[in-house]
Amino acid sequence: MQIIEIYRSIQGESSFAGVPCIFVRLATCNLRCVWCDSEYTFSGGKKLTADEVEGEVLRLSSGGLLEFTGGEPMLQERELAPLMERLLHRGFTLLLETSGERPLERVPKAVHKIVDVKCPGSGEGGSFRMSNLETLTPKDEVKFVLMDRNDYEFARDFTRQHGLEEKVNSVIFSPAFRKIPSAERDSTNCHLDPCCLAAWILADNLNVRLGLQIHKFIWEPAMKGV
Ligand code: SF4
Fold first, then answer.
1. If I label 209, which of 30, 138, 170, 193 is the partner at 20 to 30 A Cα–Cα?
2. CA dihedral defined by 194, 16, 75, 100, rounded to 10 degrees?
3. Where are the beta strands (DSSP E) in 15-169?
4. What is the pLDDT of residues 84-142, one digit of tens each?
5. 42 CA distance to ligand 1 centroid (A)?
6. Whose CA is nearest to atom 3 of ligand 1?
7. Which residue ranges make up each domain of the chain?
8. Architecture field, domain 2-218
9. Pocket residues: Cβ below 6 A from ligand 1
């Protein structure tokens, strides 16, 4: 497997935000979102066997929360799916962050999928694989990263059209973060003011979660490996 980094930190997103978590970050991505904060994953990393990844994870913790992220982890599905099965067997709670573009049928059912639907402002609108809607379970989460009102309306309409509020654990509306943020650990680095987003969500009576990437408020926003 091509791996960028394995480390332990605080989960910054999803309904697990704030909980200690091991992160396994896989290399490469086939999309190019304009606000991507993980471009350092597009190349490089080191080649590790699934056994070596498991060994490094166990060195950090014998259990708890573990997230596979990227890059796009599902580009390495052939090795990732059996590794996820093994770690589930060891008692880890697994999260998978995915762009929503790759097929998700082979993800073990016990994994909490956090699935992006790319909005128009990402530059990758339309990349979501619609058949992935069939793979969603009540413990999964769907995430929209929003640049502006146009993205918000897309996310709102998609959520309603596909009954996501009833279908999954959380529908997350998250303001896009600036690619080159200032050192300030505050919402001035968000493209879309969270205060404005909160007002829209309430006005439309949406049952969604306003998601902030809290690791960018705990540590300096540009910091990697946290
Ligand atoms: S899918 Fe994720 S890693 Fe890939 S370009 Fe978009 S934000 Fe970056």
1. 30
2. -50
3. 20-26, 46-47, 65-69, 93-98, 112-116, 141-146
4. 999 999 999 999 999 999 999 999 999 999 999 999 999 999 999 999 999 999 999 99
5. 9
6. 71
7. 2-218
8. Alpha-Beta Barrel (3.20)
9. 29, 31-33, 36, 38, 70-72, 99
